[in-house]
Amino acid sequence: MSEESSGQGALSSPPPAGHGGHGGHSGQGGRERPREGGPGGAPRRGKRQYFRKKKVCRFCVERVDFIDYKKTEVLQAFVQERGKILPRRITGTCSRHQRWLGEAIKRARNIALLPFATEL
């Protein structure tokens, strides 16, 4: 029994200083850097700040309860030139209408009202 306990003691000893943790950097070397400026590390110039206008769901404003897949001019506004569906963060649509929009665009593609992709 004493052999097992001495063997376990050797395995459970702490690692030498500077070689611990899970890969990457050690806890001591250069983790804290002085940061300059505002968000993203960019220095602030003057006191003028740009506030992005809050995007509002176009379909919620118009109180749309169904997105029609046959209205290609509406759907075209939510598709990139390459044929990809634009994400919510760009269009500003709410999650419910983004889901409906995706379904409508996919239906329109399947019956050839919208192209899947464009030629380069």
Kindly describe this structure.
- By secondary structure, the protein is mainly alpha-helical.
- The chain has a domain at 58-110: Ribosomal protein S18 (30s Ribosomal Protein S18), CATH 4.10.640.10.
- It has helices at residues 2-11, 58-61, 72-76, 88-91, 95-110.
- It is extended, with a radius of gyration of 28 Å.
CATH topology of the domain at 58-110: 30s Ribosomal Protein S18
Count helical runs. 5
Overall structural class, as computed from helix and strand content, comes to mainly alpha
Query: In what range is the share of β-strand residues?
Result: under 5%
Broad CATH class of the domain at 58-110: Few Secondary Structures
**Spans where pLDDT lies below 50 across 5 or more residues:** none
Radius of gyration: 28 Å
Mean pLDDT: 78
Labels describing this entry:
120 residues, extended, 30s Ribosomal Protein S18, mainly alpha
Question: Secondary structure elements and their pairing?
Answer:
Blueprint: H1 2-11, H2 58-61, H3 72-76, H4 88-91, H5 95-110
Can you describe this structure in just a few lines?
The protein is an all-alpha fold and 120 residues long. It has 5 helices and no strands. It has helices at 2-11, 58-61, 72-76, 88-91, 95-110.
